[in-house]
Amino acid sequence: MAFLFLAVAFRFFWIQVVEGDALRSRAFGQWTREIPVTAARGEIYDANGVLLADNAAAYAVYARPNAVKDKRRAAEVLAGLFGLDAAELYSRLLSAKASELTIARRADRLLVEQLEGSGLTGVYYARDNVRIYPHGDALSRVIGFTSSDNAGLTGLEKYYDKYLAGKNGEIAYPADLVGKEVEGEVLYVPAADGLDLRLTVDFSIQAAAEAAMQRVYAQYSPVTAQCIVLDPNSGAVLAMAEYPGYDLNDVPREDAELLNSLSRNNLVSDIYEPGSTFKIVTAAANIEEYLRGNPAAFSPQYVFNSSRTRSVDGTTIRCWSDHKNGKHSDQTLAEALANSCNPCFTDIALSLGTQTFYKYLEAFGFGKATGIDFSGEAQGMLLPAASVRACDLARIGFGQTVAVTALQLACAGAAAVNGGTYYAPRLVQEICSADGKISTKIPARAVGSPVGEEASRLLASMLEQVVASGSGGRAYIEGYRVGGKTGTAQKFEGGAIAQGKYVSSFLGFFPANDPQYLVLVIVDEPQGAYYGSIVAAPAAREVMEGIIAIKGIRPYQ
């Protein structure tokens, strides 16, 4: 008897305590029928409060077949209001096994008002927000878009979906076993609206970058024209533009291939051989090693061999051009940067050696993700140090045999000239509620120091000369100290050089003596001209001139 008593007592305890909440929830679901109360999705703002993603009021319409008294009339009224097939809807109301049918999503208020006046029983409606984007195609590859039920599918909408989505509520009506309403207390569970995002992006700078990329696209008909603007002293992304884009209010959902192409953020997700812009990293490593007393490094005054070719492992590395009067001249590191001379950077990479050079490549973030708050980031491609041959190391020195994302290169460039600190990039600076009661700030995050302050300062001054008197001359802005480096890289397809296909680029920053803005422009397969000095440098200058005008930056002299 004692055993039986304990068994029954344990069973009571199990049902009422252990499984109590789950059983009460199941019972509540049987006693009631719920109408969802949709949470408002969080809004997205730029750094200055410009609204980038908003919600418009709409409604979802539902029918409970067991509670619809006149199914034929209900089918005719609903079909007429929402453009449905009346016969099919009537059949669904008659044969539906589900207790609830969704009749329409994102219905207009005027249609709902007509529905209210129809006197139909068993038909309900609830708020159903529609995502809208006030600026259409601006930041389209960054913001992303949502599904028909407002779940984030791409971009920041996807990455921060758990914050933006909120939590839906419900209105629970008492009902009998077949779903018909009965008299009783109606329970209202309010929705918890999603949190807002405040980006690091400055919409004015974004607009300037997008306008410049659109003009480059119109002039050179490339596959894409891309631009990143960073705050080099925090890693904050001030602009991330790519043309062509698409209107976020008119997403081409019916064409999966086109949608994937237009919505992919190539600046974060695609890799390419950077070419001569990578020489910034090689120069930075050399200068830092020289200042540390490494005899393998070259001093800023060292004059490199005047030969315009180098032979490494049986392969010949050539300079892209003769520099003076048809004859390749002797040159210092600063002149090699200005002239973009491949053999000089071959000498640096080989002299530093694989172990030392790779230490800097890893410190500058190559071969791994930057950690930006965005889905689908690529890690780039860096050969394992153990398998690098001399010819591979030589080519890495001037930006071949290595593949990077545009974001990786921009972050590395920022670290090279900002005093030597590598900052993880970020797109969002704050997550907050509309009333300001909930707020999570996302601060700048320094993750390393690839080079010291003196090396960074020397490099920045050399890169200023690249713009003042070298290959980056088309990025020069009168009265402003601009530094930078051009790049022109041949594309590889199927393991071989794709004839006539190039990636033109320019990485620039200003003021050169105290960098506040870094601009990277990449033009993929421009037609006609293809040198970075001709195609990308003027576009970067246009973006920088836009920033100067927007921020009211005065000339230094």
TrEMBL record:
Single GO molecular function = penicillin binding
Entry-linked Gene3D superfamilies: DD-peptidase/beta-lactamase superfamily, Penicillin-binding protein 2a (Domain 2)
Q: Which GO terms describe its cellular component?
A: plasma membrane
Q: Which InterPro entries match?
A: Beta-lactam/transpept (IPR050515), Beta-lactam/transpept-like (IPR012338), PBP_dimer (IPR005311), PBP_dimer_sf (IPR036138), PCN-bd_Tpept (IPR001460)
Domain Penicillin-binding protein transpeptidase positions? 227-545
Q: Where is the Penicillin-binding protein dimerisation domain positioned along the sequence?
A: 37-183
Keywords attached to this entry: Membrane
Q: Name the principal localization, coarsely classed.
A: membrane
The identity of this protein, by name, is Penicillin-binding protein 2
To which species is this protein native?
Answer: Candidatus Borkfalkia faecavium
